[in-house]
């Protein structure tokens, strides 16, 4: 199995005291100087951009479990201690604790979602968007530098689908997939799609990164393009689309994805970029919504994020940023008007998606009928027709 993780530690620039960003390494991680706590918190601009403080007046994610399908998570990291549940290794081999290519990407994503900091008053380290949520780590890919990665590509190609089903059956409320294949040869896999639909039918919200191919052809990325997935594009601190962020019909919402402070198993802190980070922010936002409104179905939560997003593009939606910047506080407030049996709010742009991604998973054929009639729908039909074989990477 091959993996294209969306926020790659090998492409990050380290933090220095005071927040000066060194030149990002193209293919290697530069030696990092330890960042001071006050420097880290002042640089976590994504929390402010998403109105996190307002959302925290309602909840900090208590009672919600977010499965992080990734390279593993360091459950001993001080910013994540006691927030990480016993997980599952779907690969079964590769680097382990103490090895450099172990759990770096997954730990970074877990910190964005549910980091609680450390030290006196937890005022040091990374603070996640849902610091009281629990992380369920599921290892479905290996780090780029893992010597066993080639073996995993050829022997564990089904790990992602297995991981989705395992997480669904072991208490996940939200599944975060900051990974995907956005190569030119990428195509959908029926086993993965079936696993996503299984999760949705069981009430699990599924989130994935839209892809980092914005400067390399904007190729379709899976699992982001599967029906029902909340696909997340990346924006910078000014709300503009990050140049690397893939532009495709499946983009649901956007979130911070550039100059994001992340935690690492080496106990240093770095700045990273990628739609991986954006996906993690949205998974944390979903955790807040689900904590406040535990009975809402995945389709309702997806619709809430769309209808309450801020800084919407002209026309309400585009392929660059979806419906705009996710706003968990607004989604929590609007969610109070909904219930399991009530309709989702108006404003959904059927001309882009038909009923596909938001169809009730109990109706297995509901998304097929309304697809015709728009360019976005035609693209989705084409993607479905081409669902053969396995992706070369996740």
UniProtKB/TrEMBL annotation:
Keyword Protease: yes
Active site (UniProt): 70, 105, 276
Domain (Peptidase S8/S53): residue spans on this chain: 61-324
Cross-referenced PROSITE patterns: SUBTILASE, SUBTILASE_ASP
Signal sequence range: 1-37
Record keywords: Cell membrane, Hydrolase, Membrane, Protease, Serine protease, Signal, Transmembrane, Transmembrane helix
Subcellular localization: Cell membrane
Region (Disordered): 332-355
Membrane-crossing segments per the record: 367-387
Keyword Glycosyltransferase attached: no
An annotated Gene Ontology molecular function: peptidase activity
SUPFAM superfamilies (alphabetical): Subtilisin-like
Membrane disposition: Single-pass membrane protein
GO biological process: proteolysis
Family: Belongs to the peptidase S8 family.
PANTHER family, sorted: CEREVISIN-RELATED (PTHR43806:SF11), PEPTIDASE S8 (PTHR43806)
Protein name, UniProt field: Type VII secretion-associated serine protease mycosin
Biological source species: Streptomyces solicavernae
Gene: mycP
């Amino acid at each position: 199995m091959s993996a294209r993780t969306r926020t790659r530690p090998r492409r990050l620039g380290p933090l220095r005291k005071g927040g000066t960003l060194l030149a990002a390494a193209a293919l290697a991680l530069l030696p990092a100087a330890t960042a001071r706590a006050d420097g880290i918190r002042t640089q976590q601009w994504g929390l402010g951009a998403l109105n996190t403080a307002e959302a925290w007046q309602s909840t900090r994610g208590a009672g919600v479990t977010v499965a992080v399908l990734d390279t593993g998570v360091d459950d001993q990291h001080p910013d994540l201690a006691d927030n990480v549940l016993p997980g599952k290794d779907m690969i079964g081999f590769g680097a382990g604790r103490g090895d450099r290519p172990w759990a770096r990407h997954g730990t970074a994503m877990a910190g964005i979602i549910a980091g609680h900091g450390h030290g006196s008053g937890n005022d040091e380290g990374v603070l996640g968007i849902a610091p009281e949520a629990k992380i369920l780590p599921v290892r479905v890919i290996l780090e780029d530098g893992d010597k066993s990665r080639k073996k995993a590509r050829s022997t564990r190609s089904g790990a992602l689908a297995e991981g989705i089903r395992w997480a669904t059956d072991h208490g996940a409320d939200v599944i975060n997939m900051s990974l995907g294949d956005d190569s030119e040869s990428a195509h959908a896999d029926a086993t993965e799609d079936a696993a996503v639909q299984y999760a949705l039918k069981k009430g699990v919200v599924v989130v994935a990164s839209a892809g980092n191919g914005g400067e390399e052809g904007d190729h379709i990325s899976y699992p982001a393009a599967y029906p029902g997935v909340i696909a997340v594009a990346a924006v910078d601190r000014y709300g503009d689309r990050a140049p690397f962020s893939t532009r495709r019909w499946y983009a649901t919402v956007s979130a911070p994805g550039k100059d994001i402070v992340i935690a690492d198993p080496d106990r240093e802190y770095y700045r990273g970029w990628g739609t991986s980070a954006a996906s993690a922010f949205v998974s944390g936002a979903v955790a807040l919504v689900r904590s406040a409104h535990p009975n809402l179905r995945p389709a309702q939560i997806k619709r809430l994020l769309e209808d309450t997003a801020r800084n919407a593009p002209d026309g309400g939606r585009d392929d660059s940023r979806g419906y705009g910047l996710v706003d968990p506080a607004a989604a929590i407030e609007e969610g109070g008007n909904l219930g399991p049996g009530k309709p989702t709010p108006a404003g959904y742009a059927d001309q882009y998606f038909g009923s596909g991604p938001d169809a009730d998973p109990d109706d297995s054929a509901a998304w097929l009928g309304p697809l015709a009639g728009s360019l976005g729908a035609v693209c989705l039909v084409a993607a479905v027709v081409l669902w053969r074989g396995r992706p070369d990477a996740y």
